[in-house]
Amino acid sequence: MNTTDTDRLIEDYLRRLDQAAAHLPRARRAELVADIRGHIDTALRQEPAAGEAAVRNVLDRLGRPEDIVEAAQPPTPDADQRAGKLEIAALIALLVPFIGWGVGAVLVVASRVWSRRDKLIGAVLLLLPIVILGLSVVAISGPNGGEESPPPGDTRPVGEKVEEPLDPVPAGLMLLVVGLPSALYLGWRLRPDPATSPTDA
Q1: Contact partners, residue 95, CB within 8 Å, separation at least 6
Q2: What is the three-class DSSP state of 21?
Q3: Do 56 and 90 reside in the same domain of the chain?
């Protein structure tokens, strides 16, 4: 077998490798093919004799292209690392005022799916609306917050604090949306990584 035929064996192997790695990101796929090509060249230089037999020996030692791709890609998440009931329960709990926020936060921390960065951003998105809502309530009910002139016919002196109860409907709606930003962000982070999608080929 001449040099052209041995080159064809190598190119055919590398083409199968590229096809098997089609689901990997483009840069990672190109890097993998280049690494294997370099490994083949190095191994052939160490063979005592050139030719078809030497090429086949090197390719046999490398193994199937599919096996190389499987070993090179990140490990598939196990059952504990995929989004499951715990993550769904955490997202639902974050939408429940007060107790739900605490339960949701605990479940998020216990999850092995979200990264530390995701958990930190989720916590900030949960705490920020709570702080803003608390400051708003303090501003309304705090000193001079409800002070106003009495209406005509009211015998109370001018400047006396007038307490006006909060409208329960808007207040309830505000409580319901407190955990929404955190739940939306963490739910968005559960989506499949587009970098591993075949459309990136």
Answers
A1: 104, 176, 179, 180, 183
A2: coil
A3: no
Residues 52/5, Cβ–Cβ less than 8 Å? yes
Report the distance separating Cα 201 and Cα 197, nearest Å.
8
Together in a domain, 136 and 68: no
pLDDT tens digits, 94-147? 888 888 888 888 999 998 888 888 999 989 988 888 788 777 767 766 555 445
Q: How far apart are the first and last CA of the chain?
A: 34
- Of the candidates 142, 126, 127, 141, the residue with the CA atom closest to the CA atom of residue 171: 141
Give the global pTM.
0.45
How many Å apart are CA 36 and CA 39, to the nearest integer? 5
Which of 20, 39, 72 is a domain's end point? Answer: 72
Give the residue carrying structure tokens 């063979």: 47
* Residue 19 domain-assigned (yes or no): yes
- What is the spatial distance between Cα 33 and Cα 161, in angstroms, rounded to a whole number? 76
Least confident range of 17-31, 71-85, 116-130: 71-85
